[in-house]
Amino acid sequence: MSHSASCDYCGLPVATAASASEPVYCCFGCQFAAGVTRESDGAMDRLSLQGPYARLGISVFCTMNVIMLTMALWAYAENPDTRFAAALADFLRYFAMLFTIPVLVLLGRPLAESATGQLRRGLLSTDLLLLTGVLAASAASILSTFRGNGHVYFEVACVILVLVSLGRWLEAHGRVRASQALDELERLLPDRVLRLEATGDQTEEIPVAEIRAGDRLRVRAGERVAVDATVESGTASVDEQFFTGESVPVLKTVGDELLGGSLNLDGDLVVCARSTAEGGALARLVRQVREARLTRGEHQALADRWSRAFFPIIGLLALATFGVHTWRERWDVGLMNALSVVLIACPCGLALATPLAAWVALGTAARRGVLFRSGEAIERLARTRRVYFDKTGTLTTGQPRVVRFVCENPQDFDLLRNLSVAITQSSTHPFSVAIHEFLEAAGPIPALEGFRTVPGAGLEAVLADGGFVYVGSREWMASQKLAVGPRVQAALADSKGASASHVFVGTTGRGTAAAGVGALFLLEETLRPSVAACLAGLEDLAIGAEVLTGDRRERGEALRRELGIPVRARLLPEQKVEWIRRTGGSAGRGTETDPGVVMVGDGLNDAPALAAASLGMALGCGTDVSRDTADVCLVRDDLAMVPWSIGFARRTVRTMRQNLGWSFGYNGVGVVFAAAGWLHPAIAAALMVVSSLMVLGNSLRLQEGEISPSFPSPLQEGPAGLLRPSEGVEA
């Protein structure tokens, strides 16, 4: 009974009936290359005839002798006119046959095993066609040898086997090169860790695979954290740059969480594992990229359809070539021309054209912190014509900052500041956190009682003397009958049309400040430093950009002026979905008429909009690469990776099309030459290898000269970080 598995050499999915303990290979090339790898590692006797290096070396030596003997036969003794010439011809034929036999055994047997194995699974493969041609050429040559006359084609059979084996070996190495970037990420995780005993501080070294949630592990300076964990003891600086994009190490102490794959720089930590090795942040990312490699995009589907039609079409064409040339010349000429057709039309390059480019792209992008859910997502992203951005948490950090603090009566400044510090220190609302960080208490903080949060309104607390203090919206101040004074009114008028949010501070006046609204905070969200780089990159790619936000129109207009792109404000989540669908979102997903609408969000509260777009892109997936609604996940909070991803996707699709164009063109022109009898089988075999190498080299170029995500960023020196308390304060 067959089951699904992955090739033990290149990772390609393959159906097999082998037991779990046996190595599984997708093709003869991977089996051959895996043997070479084992031999290089010293796991196999280098002088053994079973060693791939030895097999290939002996086969090349024998093939060179066969070529020399057959060339001598053609030149001096193919048509003997004397007894000596006839004896020389027989000598050359028999010795050519003797040198051919090792090549057939050493290289032909693995090819035969691959062909018959696929035939047992109901697959008609190119290996079967190649094997048929090699056996036919060998049989015809052996017959001519024993008859003592006629042409021999031993050199054809030998050259084909050597070049096919060498070509498949190179293809297998190419598939491994395509996985190189992903393998580098996987190698970041340690193979073994130190686990502490349940009682005491004794440690034992165990394989990472044996880690279980709840295990206590020791992570020494210079070691990577194997799994997601929580610090139990110790303090250290930890490098989380891959997940967060932040180059400055983060200080971790007791109770802090660690990500699997982060690097302990300078301390000794004891941590408690929160997952197994497969559940760590980096391990999850690698696993999802490996799963993405198994998906099929449109270009891969096209190549698959052609590959399925290849065998009957080329088989019929080879038979027709054999028949025509046999009728017009001789049967052996027809056989050689038919073999040339099979060799030149071999779809090895076509089979590599799209998956190899996709593999290289997925691994390279993952190394840059861009996770594609599938190969199809790359193709959809390449069609992008318009990008919609969510505002909060995407274009902005989601953390507001105070830009202005206005106090109605200067004599109440210190009191209102201290009251604001006291009431906001117990709240986790972003506005409360921003206000608390902005202010510095002058003197003792008043004691508050009866603290409560009123959803949608603000905060309320009771002072020791029975007075009330309120922090919140203007509507809530009005509901408490707290009037707004002229100084605060003037500040409101000045900020009209700006993107600032308003937070009021009001008191009832019993033993405190005068009753009414005593102060006003103006807060603005901080744009990410990479916003300008992102928009400049999209403009370079001729891609439109637009913001969809639920903010009021005044704030949307201010954002439009600041960014210079359209902003649609006061949109509810369902209205965002409707707008995306109206402009051609999910209705066209995955089709040639797909208008290429991309939605960029944080992947949490904007999940419906991400799902409605042609392609959803989630920002800042660092610790959670499993946000299901996003087709592309940006591990770091770097908007510059949005245009980089689109540009890289376009480059990948362009490479796929170049590979397909080359493969189709090469096969088409080559078949015409071969069918006409203008191509020798040995040359056809060499050209088959060249075709695969062209596709391989073109795909691997995606690893080199990557598109830089560093676009000009004029906003990077703009508002970033909190103001000092002395800035923006009006007493």
Description:
It is a single chain. It is built from 23 helices and 25 strands. With 731 residues, it is α+β, with helices and mostly antiparallel strands. It folds into four domains: 3-178, no CATH class; 189-283, Calcium-transporting ATPase, cytoplasmic transduction domain A (Distorted Sandwich), CATH 2.70.150; 370-396 and 528-642, 3-Layer(aba) Sandwich (Rossmann fold), CATH 3.40.50; 399-526, Calcium-transporting ATPase, cytoplasmic domain N. Strands 12-24-23-22-13-20-21 form a seven-stranded mixed sheet. It has a seven-stranded mixed sheet with strand order 15-16-17-18-19-14-25, sandwiched between helices. A six-stranded antiparallel sheet has the order 4-3-5-11-6-9, with no helix packed on it. The protein is 48% helix and 17% strand. Helix 11 packs antiparallel against helix 22 (641-675).
List the topology elements:
Elements: E1 3-6, E2 13-16, H1 28-40, H2 52-77, H3 83-120, H4 126-147, H5 154-178, H6 180-186, E3 192-196, E4 203-207, E5 216-219, E6 229-233, E7 236-239, H7 241-244, E8 250-252, E9 257-258, E10 263-264, E11 269-273, H8 281-292, H9 298-328, H10 331-344, H11 348-367, E12 370-372, H12 375-382, E13 386-390, H13 391-395, E14 396-407, H14 413-424, H15 430-438, E15 448-454, E16 458-463, E17 468-472, H16 474-479, H17 486-494, E18 501-507, E19 516-527, H18 531-540, E20 544-548, H19 553-563, E21 567-568, H20 573-582, E22 597-601, H21 607-612, E23 615-619, E24 632-634, H22 641-675, H23 681-700, E25 729-730
Helix pairs in contact: 1-5, 2-3, 2-5, 3-4, 3-5, 4-5, 4-10, 5-11, 5-23, 6-11, 9-10, 9-11, 9-22, 10-22, 10-23, 11-22, 11-23, 12-22, 14-15, 18-22, 22-23
